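Supplementary Note 3. Input sequence used for the single-chain structure prediction.
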Amino acid sequence: MKWSPRLLQKLNSWIDTESLRVRMTLGIATVSALGLGSLASWIGLKMQHILISSHKQTLEYIAERFPRDLEIYTEMVPLPTGTKKAINNLTNENTWLWVVGNDGMIIAQSDNLNPQLLSLKDVASIPRIHAIAQGHWLICAIPVEINGVKQGVAYIAQDITGDQRMFLQLMKNLSLATVLGISLMTVAIATYIRRSLQPLKAISQATAKIEAEELSKVRFELEKAPTEVKELAQTFDEMVMRLSLAWEHQRELVSNVSHELRTPLTIVSGYLQSTLRRGNNLTPVQREALEIAHSEANRTIQLMQDLLELARADNGRMHFQLEELALPTIVTETVEMGRRYSHREINLDIQNEELVIKADRSRLKQVLLNLIDNAVKYSEESVTVKVWREENQGKIQISDRGIGITLAQQSRVFERFYRVDEARSRSSGGTGLGLAIVKTFVEGMKGDIFLASQPGKGTDFTVCFPLLEK
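The predicted structure, written as discrete structure tokens, is reproduced below.
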């Protein structure tokens, strides 16, 4: 029998011993089981005590009366006859007596006496339960004296088999009722705890979906939650509010710093470039130093420009000049630009010529150039750009056969400043903002971007846009 992954995941969540729900359920159920079990045991012992006590009283009454009756009868008739008369007066269908003389011979006994009772030895004077021949008997022994002379020992036995069986059946029913009660109580407790913890689960699910851009909109509203959970939700609201303010301050700082630094860095880059062009008397060491400074200045300017783009997107001030574009045409132009800049082979595969989308021309080119640049950096082989139609979407796929991206890294490649390969990114001038900008631009133009990759086999980035029908 095969279990579905979803069912296995649900079972694992139900039996997760580390979860608060399971711990509380097991704790309360254990305490309840101990309480009900102890109560059932106490009731059983009490009932058995009451049952035996009533029979003990009967035996004690017979043990007290039998010597007096025997003494009276023996004054009128011989000992065996008097003993028989005393026994007959005190026995019934469930009670038997027999007297054993000093010589070990039976002086007298009840009619229909069970022969197996005669084999008993060392019977105590206090009534005790004996199991004989699948039956239960309450038996005691008392000395028989007449005129101060011991004549033997009288044995008194009462059959309590019926009562004992009724008691055992009652205990069995009580045990079953206890088990059933514990089971129902456990289910009820588990259901109640599960419902009580729903607000916590709601908070957990809500926090898992929080995006930095939506911090100011997050509110935890729990009307029917316990007071403690409401306090927790209120604390979360205050924390999120502080995070939102910190995020706003950070975005403003990045925007302001990027804006203030871009102009002086552009001037520095211009002076360095001018010096390089006119520096005919520069030594090779000086020229190399100026080229490095110029390269780093340009990289920093690009970083400032990327940060400004993201800051505009965060503040909602990024505007897209959307227009109808022939997708094959714009991709062909961008691929030609990529070939000139990278000096690498880039294969173009256009499967549908008449694909029209609505997008910002310059932003779309920047998206494609960023993806092509990434493919060229991380692959020594040729890069392939494919364009095709799938249902009502136009798709662009940029594929390389490079080092690939692990599954753990794929969920983070669109994060800001995240680099798959730090050493390669730094050597190639990457800032870790390219894919973040790509995702921001694509989503801003109502498109989607997907990633598929295998380590050692390469990476495919697929950009999708809704098609405009003619």
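The first strand starts at residue 95 and ends at 101. The chain has three domains: 1-196, 227-314, 322-466.
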